[in-house]
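Appendix C: a fully annotated inverse folding record. The material below is reproduced so that readers can follow the format used throughout the book. The structure is listed first as tokens, followed by the designed sequence.
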């Protein structure tokens, strides 16, 4: 990668790191706001997402330093809608994860075709994880027996 491509990759990695950290805060908040009969498994799932987001943020930061950059101290946008229904939480999660996925695809486009195998493989791995996560959320938003994907 040339200097301009490296700087662009660092910028995207910092955005990924910021978005993943925002996800940590968001999922932690959501886990505290769940009430009702299904609280325990949903809280566990939300906490797991927060933990995964922290791992993803750390990995992005490691790649920033690998490229000679400085990891961001910022955090991505935090949206507080004051809606804490499970459906609302899942729809907000779907929106957040879609935005993060776009950043991983942007990094992939900067790194593919031999520019950086490390970044390309990292991007592909995280794209797979994020797409599977999006599918999981999508399935949670469907009514039982509904095989068609949820659309907002």
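Designed amino acids, in order:
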């Amino acid at each position: 990668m040339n200097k301009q491509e490296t700087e662009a990759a660092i910028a995207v990695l910092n955005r990924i790191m910021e978005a993943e950290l925002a996800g940590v805060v968001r999922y932690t908040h959501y886990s505290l706001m769940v009430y009702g009969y299904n609280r325990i498994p949903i809280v566990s799932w939300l906490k797991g997402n927060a933990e995964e987001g922290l791992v993803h943020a750390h990995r992005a930061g490691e790649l920033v330093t690998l490229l000679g950059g400085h990891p961001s101290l910022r955090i991505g946008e935090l949206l507080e809608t004051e809606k804490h229904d499970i459906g609302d939480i899942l729809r907000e999660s779907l929106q957040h994860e879609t935005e993060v996925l776009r950043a991983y695809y942007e990094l992939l486009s900067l790194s593919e075709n031999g520019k950086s195998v490390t970044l390309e493989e990292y991007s592909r791995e995280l794209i797979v994880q994020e797409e599977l996560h999006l599918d999981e959320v999508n399935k949670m938003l469907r009514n039982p027996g509904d095989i068609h994907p949820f659309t907002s």
